[in-house]
From TrEMBL:
PANTHER family: MEMBRANE-ASSOCIATED SALT-INDUCIBLE PROTEIN-LIKE (PTHR47939), OS03G0201400 PROTEIN (PTHR47939:SF13). Residues 93-137 are annotated as: Disordered. Keywords: Repeat, Signal. This is Pentatricopeptide repeat-containing protein. InterPro entries: Ankyrin_rpt-contain_sf (IPR036770), PPR-containing_protein (IPR050667), PPR_rpt (IPR002885), TPR-like_helical_dom_sf (IPR011990). Residues 1-23 form the signal peptide.
Length: 821
């Protein structure tokens, strides 16, 4: 008994080392030298084609993972050696922590603080894919004689989603912010009662994929529980719909550590996640990782690679990949070709896409409806309706008769791109063939006509819907109502609202918002305000868009007090205006010189938690500057630092301009240096403002010193050009010529225009010799002056007796080939 007790203690200590994160197995497995992934492309087209392209999958039950064929049950003999202990032996570890990595360091934290998406230095963050064919090498491992092993996707049974245990666990997860040991124990107890498909349903039930990943990690650590292989695939499938590529990679690595055989689908899900994250190079390197893991490629993973390349605008590489597939014996199917067709359409190579459709039968793969739909979609965008009809005829020749789905898709595509007449023609054709178009198709045509301003046609379509027993819904009515409002026909819009009630269609918030917006645009904002006050009696609730529309209507009509009161009511109802809405209202108050009211309103919004930003304060400061209340503007500028609203370059430029206008140039200089000290780059407006006031006050030397400091912060190509031109405008060309050397350093077209301004300034002051001197300097810098301007200079030189300089100036043009001898 003592011996067995010692053995038990030894095992407990050894398991305890694992639970505390200490390494148990000395052999480290090196995974993910390259990123990974996969996407099942057939699911993308499942809504269009009834063809089962993956009928050769090796599942024993339709839609269920074939765990026996993949050897999952035989791979779990080492599983318990890697189990993490439960809370009984793992100390104060919080619920939903991340699993430990190979080194034993705990990567998790509390549920609310955990960062699921981790950085990985081994990943290349570049989104580009090299032009080489290194990613094609994995195709060489394809076994032409061997059978293709595949894992089917877990069937999504709706009964599992409605199971009481699934819903209860999901409810407990929603209260994760208030976790305590009792709730965690309850969750742990419920977890042991779930079967693998129910655990998968819990993962899919979560609206936030990060929460699903945290629950997956937490469940993986529980005592006497282990994830079934289908749970790993369900987790990967959930992550494949997100950009959480690092989380998907960790799940794939965890499968290897647990000894679970990974089929191509596992790598494919990670591939899709990398592609969604924009890491296309990493997505393609999954193929190399799969080859190193000893997993043979199949058609599904190849289709995923083609899809990723097409989505990454690498059509040429996708075409080479398909060629390599055929060389090694992987025969492309209709999904492969549909990906290439979409790639052709994305780069506007519609003719090549249609040619590929024509060649598909000769390659042993007939096109399906998706092939034609893809091309039709892009033809509708380019308003090539005749070619759409020709393509429909080709579909009929292929034995693909247009069905109701075909017509509905065409109607929606044409209506979306503003071809209401053509969409109506297809609707008539569909009904002539006995197909019934639902209210959604009619609504699309109605919306297209309303956008074009053809309200009469939209009303006729609505009347036709009634005659055919297709009752319009609230979306259709609201579309027509909004069309009347856009045209300013408010009486018709109100009649449409009453007609909705008459036909038993209750208007919703969107309907009333469209009507109120129309009233405000027609100058009846007070009527809109009264209708909003009656919303409770009409059984509808205004939303943030409703409040914003009425607020802007009151603002445009000058009813600023009512607009501010509406914003206060809006905030009390739990709706917060956007910074743009606030800025327009503050700007209107400033234009009315109601600065105190504008400041109080801004402070109230800030205290109530509204998104008041730097732009709003800049508008307020600009209002004070326009009112010549610089002290209030400077005080508000200092107050911004106290409330952690740091001014930007526009804010500083506004105050600098006001100081310059008042002649307080020293304070403007000090504020400019303060802006540079804060690390803010001056904008082009900042340069123009400073140059204008310094030149106007004749302080050119001080200006040049300040410009050197500003240019050291950020180069501005035309700074000295602006100085020269401003001095010329102020009638001081002599001072401007001193800076001509700085202007002619680059000898660009902009510099030539500046020299022309200087020459014209000298001519206007009666100094043609100075203008001649500027033109000569331009020739020396290989700049050709304006010929007409130089002719004026030459004539003035001749009148003053400087014929030698006049002849010399024209001779320079002859030497450059601009004039004949």
């Amino acid at each position: 008994m003592v011996f067995f007790g010692l053995v038990f203690v030894f095992k407990a200590l050894r398991l305890g080392m694992i639970g505390k994160g200490l390494p148990f197995n000395s052999q480290a497995i090196s995974f993910f030298e390259y990123p990974s992934a996969f996407a099942r492309l057939s699911s993308v087209f499942s809504s269009f084609s009834s063809r089962d392209e993956l009928s050769s999958r090796c599942s024993t039950e339709p839609g269920i993972y074939s765990v026996d064929n993949c050897g999952f049950h035989n791979a779990h003999h080492e599983y318990n050696r890697f189990r993490k202990m439960g809370p009984e032996v793992s100390g104060n570890r919080s619920v939903f922590e991340c699993p430990e990595d190979e080194s034993g360091d705990n990567q998790g934290s509390n549920f609310g603080d955990e960062e699921v998406e981790e950085s990985d230095s081994s990943d290349d963050e570049g989104g580009d894919i090299s032009d080489g064919d290194d990613d094609f090498m994995m195709l060489n491992s394809f076994n032409r004689n061997g059978e293709e092993k595949d894992v089917s996707r877990v069937e999504r049974d709706e009964e599992e989603f409605r199971h009481p245990l699934v819903r209860e666990i999901s409810r407990l997860i929603e209260f994760r912010s208030a976790w305590n040991p009792k709730l965690e124990g309850e969750l742990r107890r419920l977890l042991k009662s779930l079967n693998p498909r129910q655990v998968s349903a819990v993962l899919r039930f979560q609206s936030d994929e990060r929460v699903a990943l945290k629950f997956f990690y937490w469940a993986d650590r529980q005592w006497r529980y282990r994830h079934d292989p289908i749970v790993y695939y369900a987790m990967l499938e959930v992550l494949s719909k997100t950009k959480l590529c690092q989380g998907a990679k960790r799940v794939l690595r965890l499968m290897a550590r647990r000894g679970i055989e990974r089929c191509p689908e596992a790598f494919g899900h990670v591939m899709v996640s990398y592609s969604r994250a924009g890491k296309l190079r990493n997505a393609m390197r999954v193929l190399t990782l799969m080859q190193k893991s000893g997993v043979e490629p199949n058609l599904s993973i190849c289709n995923t690679a083609v899809h990723v390349l097409v989505m990454g605008n690498k059509l040429e590489k996708a075409l080479r990949f398909v060629e390599r597939m055929q060389i090694v014996g992987i025969r492309p199917n209709v999904i492969t070709y549909n990906c290439l067709i979409k790639g052709y359409c994305d780069v506007h190579r519609i003719e090549d896409a249609m040619e590929l459709i024509a060649e598909m039968p000769f390659k042993g793969c007939s096109p399906d409806k998706v092939s034609f739909y893809t091309v039709m979609h892009f033809l509708c965008k380019q308003k090539r309706i005749k070619e759409v009809r020709k393509l429909m005829e080709k579909m009929k020749d292929r034995g693909l008769l247009p069905d109701q789905v075909t017509y509905i898709n065409l109607i929606h595509m044409l209506s979306k791109h503003g071809h209401g007449n053509e969409a109506l023609e297809f609707l008539r054709e569909a009904e002539g063939r006995g197909f019934r178009i639902d209210k959604v198709g009619y609504s699309a045509i109605v919306q297209s006509f309303c956008k074009e301003g053809r309200i009469d046609m939209a009303k006729e379509i609505v009347s036709e819907m009634f005659s055919k027993g297709c009752t319009p819904d609230v979306v259709t009515y609201t579309t027509v109502l909004d069309g009347f409002c856009r045209l300013g026909q408010m009486d018709q819009a109100k009649k449409m609202l009453h007609q909705m009630y008459k036909h038993g269609c209750k208007p919703n918030t969107t309907s009333y918002t469209a009507l109120l917006n129309g009233l405000c645009r027609s100058g009846n904002s007070m009527e809109a305000r009264k209708m909003m006050d009656m919303s409770e009696e009409e059984w509808w609730t205004p939303n943030a868009i409703t409040y914003s529309a009425v607020m802007h209507g009151l603002r445009r009509e000058g009813k600023l007090g009512d607009a501010c009161n509406l914003v206060r009511e809006m905030v009390q109802k739990g709706f917060f205006p956007t910074p743009v809405d606030l800025n327009l209202l503050i700007q209107s108050l400033c234009q009315e010189e109601k600065m105190d009211e504008a400041k109080r309103f801004t402070e109230w919004c800030l205290n109530k938690g509204c998104a008041v930003n730097v732009v709003n304060f800049t508008t307020l400061i600009h209002g004070y500057c326009r009112k010549d209340d610089l002290e209030a503007a400077l005080l508000l500028l200092d107050d911004m630092f106290l409330i952690n609203k740091h001014p930007d370059a526009v804010t500083y430029t506004t105050v600098i301009n006001a100081l310059g206008r008042k002649g307080r140039i020293e304070e403007a200089t000090e504020l400019t240096m303060k802006m540079l000290g804060k690390g803010l780059d001056p904008t082009p407006v900042t340069y123009r403002t400073i140059i204008h006031w310094y030149c106007q006050m004749g302080r050119v030397d001080d200006l040049l010193k300040l410009l050197e400091k500003m240019l050291s912060r950020k180069m501005h190509r035309t700074a000295y050009n602006q100085v020269v031109e401003k001095l010329c405008d102020l009638g001081n060309p002599e001072e401007a010529e001193k800076l001509l050397g700085k202007v002619l350093r680059t000898a660009s077209r902009i510099d030539a225009n500046t020299c022309h301004v200087l020459m014209d300034s000298y001519l206007s002051k009666g100094f043609p010799l100075s203008a001649y001197r500027v033109a000569s300097r331009m020739f020396n810098r290989n700049l050709i002056p304006n010929l007409k301007l130089c002719e004026k200079v030459s004539k003035r030189l001749m009148l003053e007796g400087s014929s030698k300089e006049a002849d010399n100036l024209m001779l320079r043009f002859v030497e450059r080939g601009c004039l004949s001898a």
